[in-house]
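Researcher: Here's the sequence for the chain we discussed earlier.
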Amino acid sequence: MSSVLPSLNALRAFDTTARTLNMTAAAEQLHVTHGAVSRQIRLLEEQLETRLFERAGRGVRLTSAGARLAATTQQVFSQLEQTCDQLRREAKGAPFVLGCSGSFLARWFIPRLDQLKHDCPGLELHLTAADEDKPIRTGVDATLRFATPPWPDDHQVISLAPERIGPVLRPDLLPDTLPCTPATLLRLPLLETLSRPQAWPQWCRQQKLHPRQLSIAQSFEHLNYMLEAALVGLGVAIAPAYLVEEDLRTGRLIAPWGFIETDARLSLWLPDRVQDPRARQLADWLQRMLNP
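Model: Thanks. This is the structure I predict for it:
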């Protein structure tokens, strides 16, 4: 069997069909005819000496060999698209695009933009909101994420700082008559965010409290909504320390029980193994700011 790789066109036709499981849809995406896609896949099967698809109603389904190849082509084509996009934008002098959660963007990053411009005057940065649990989309050079190792092999991950979480509340929500112990939380309304359901259980286990003892008064879809609820006195929120630094400094919130370190890390995720030098410059600045 020849060790020469199949043609790029054949692999592209296969990859698109593997994602759509429909040759007509694949042909539309590739702007070619149904027959052209069929010929490319047939050529690929002949070169590999194995079937990659089986008929399934009006579409197709992957054979076991096809599924193995699709796992590779999807990863490789995704990396190619991201790298080519990055090179095009670098050639045009495009800014470095950083994605991060809306709460981190609003509560930590934006207040420090002037400091970043002062410390890194040559780094042109564009910030965009990005979900932590979704793949890095095309056009984004890196994302900031709270996540627990191990890291995926298809990303370059630069660890920046440990995640520290703790209960925060408005000062008037904690009466002077209540003792300032972890058990006091059993008597207060608690708030949680659906994006981090593990936060309260993690904190409870370190405080020798059983998570089932706590009563959640209200859940919020986004962490930022939960913190706004805490600021108006609806209950006690569990939050990363980085996001409430300014609220604690001004006294709008208090953290009488302190913060604990979790297994998660705040890290800078790059979508491929080829590192943009601007990412290292940004990572160095973030590490200094997060670990004063």
